[in-house]
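One-letter codes give the sequence; the fold follows as tokens. Both lines appear below.
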Amino acid sequence: MFLRMGILIFLAFTVANCAVNNNDPLAKYPVTTTKINLSYSLLDSLPASIGGFPELRILKLFRNKFEYLPEAIGQLKKLDKLIASGNNLKSIPSSIGELTELTELSLQFNNLSQLPAEIGQLKKLEILRLNNNLLTSLPPEIGELENLKYLFLGYNRITKLPEELSKLENLAILDIGQNLLLELPESLAKLERLIELNIVNSGSAIDVPESLCYLRSLEYVAISSNVRIPQCWVTRKTGRFTLVVK
């Protein structure tokens, strides 16, 4: 009788444990895994247990229903790529600054209205996608991303770019189209490695500073018809340079 009861208890525990694991999208991954893909899973939240994968290098969370990411995400010390685009994210935890090995961060198509200052701690970041959000400003700490090459800020509500943006000396592509900018800072002329610049509908009848004439690395510029540009862009004949009016 006691043996039979023990078997029944064991079976009940096993079934309950399986049910819990079935509800945990991370249960199928070994703790030593280097890549987790939860894209298109229609998840409402990311379990805090995500912090239990110390070897993780790639985390894909595309197209879920996350409004927040757990603070535990900062425990992924070896993470190289974080793709969390196409969610309902309202904010990013300050622990994002702990991901010091991150080279790519994709947060486009969310509901972000601001970024934590800790984002400036991502010294190895090369690609930052923030387009199609609700951002009205950028933290000055964004200028500390010394290795950033690609910055996508299109389709937000940004009214002013921080002067610190000019410190991104390795920036090659800057997309600030479809925003509410009142002006473009003269300091953008310090982006000596800038190759592509998109300012289509970036603000109401803004002026492009004459100082941008000194950006000899520029090869492609997209503007709106209501943007006033320096004469040097019209007459420029040296090097590869394309000016597109959209």
The chain has a mean pLDDT of 90.
